[in-house]
Specification:
Oligomer: heterodimer
CATH topology of one domain in chain B: Histone, subunit A
Strand content of chain A: 5-15%
Shape of chain A: globular
Number of strands of chain A: 11
Number of strands of chain B: 0
Helix content of chain A: 25-40%
Number of helices of chain B: 3
Chain lengths: 476, 97
Amino acid sequence: MDMKKTTLSALRKSLDEKQISAQELCGECYRAIESGEESIGAFITLTKEEAKKAAEKAQTRIDSGESDFLTGIPLAIKDNICTDGIKTTCASKMLENFVPPYDATVIEKLKGQDYVLIGKTNMDEFAMGGATQTSYFKRSHNPVDTSRVPGGSSGGSAAAVAAGFVPASLGSDTGGSIRQPASFCGVAGLKPTYGRVSRYGLVAFGSSLDQIGPLANTAADCGALLNVIAGGDERDATSAKLPKEDFTGKIGQSINGMKIALPKEFYGEATDAEVKEAVMKAAKELEALGAVLVSCEMPSLKYGIPAYYLIACAEAASNLSRFDGIKYGLRGEGKSYGEMILDSRNRGFGEEVKRRILLGNYALSSGYFDAYYRKACALRQRIKAEYEAIFELADVILTPTAPTVAFKIGSDDNDPVKMFTADMLTVPVNIAGLPAISVPCGRNGDNMPIGMSIVGRRFDESTLIQMADAYEKEHN
Amino acid sequence: MAKIDKAALDHIAELSKLSFTDEETEKMIDQMSNIITFMDTIREIDIQYDDAKDNNQISYARLREDKAGESFPTEKLLQNAHTGGDGDCYVLPKMME
């Protein structure tokens, strides 16, 4: 079975019609992993024994005719999402042996349907990075070309789907960490509206930016997974309490007359010519389906990266202050309390994490708070207002997901600022708290996938999935 | 031009509860200076943060009821801790003499 060529709905049908059992499906995943994982490095932890038990339990449920959408479906989960009893490392030495005492809310929801956890996927350390190269454990590789990065920080989750190890996975997106690896690996990835999915049990990076979301082979599958994980949660005060919704409900409805904005700043010099060409071609294809293309501007885009990094790193500096070796995590040496904490953090964190903590505390420190953090918050308000103005003219916004295709491993190791600027097209969406889906829209001259992002109004994931699905069906 | 010097790095390292060797300090000063120079792009634009716009008030109607529930089992909470054999305490070096 080629997991790359199937969908969650097709698997559901096969399971319910007894064409394949949950145990066999689980076995297919591990066979694919055994043959391909060494060259890709998508996983930090494989959960074979737990998966076998989960598959057996799921099969019992299927046999009794009481399956839910995800019963018996194998998934991979990014390793910053807490899984009770199963190591959750955030790809950091700090949490190398950390076993959470509880499940994240999204995991509780998946377990409620008796899904099958195949493994915890590799990521950039504490979700800080855009290539899945800063993990303490291993570098991940792009399944399309293993000399290139899979993107990040949910690179393991994207690679696992692109390699056919699993039909879908969960990642997290703070500044593009679902969409960019989806784009680099040639799969679909959805960042929900901020507040759509509970963050309880997601190890926090930037609390006003983080969202958990799905990666899968199709936009419809992203919608189907979102149906399960979305919802308000008493344990996450930032989650929205909204009526239950079927995010695949608009699939198949015509996009005739829908307006698609193309902000010119996203198509500037910093974006590769081949990327722009592929996205513009996709825009024309959507126009041929009846959509209307609308030009517009977002003049504050150029401030998006500094605004994002100042806010995200300030929040990260606060969130990562809990890692002191006292209650959990790596404990360093030291004759005194202070020395022990210093040693724990010096030894536990990698370079990129340390840089971002330093930047965050710099932005928050006395004498700099107004000039940096408060100014970044003002820019956030400006960027939100510019998006609101665009949504007066259009239903969705179409942009390239990333300015380039997946780059060679090692090519940005020594340039932190270059790594930051690679996020320029994704971070504004997080700053504004909007939903966005990345779907493949072509390949470049080196056969590397190119992704386009469809951005929507807050809580309008259904429209994004409708449009992305329309494109996928037309294009395929 | 370097935006930060050793004293500035030492200050934010202290805030961050991190420390660096001499070699690391030199590298970090260089990298942080480049990063902060890049962040300074925001100085070009003259805008003010509007507190009222972000609706910073807590909506008390949305707070959950103050009802006692079951606690997490102690052994689960301590499963990742250094308890030094004493089952219900975190053990750590003295904070002060």
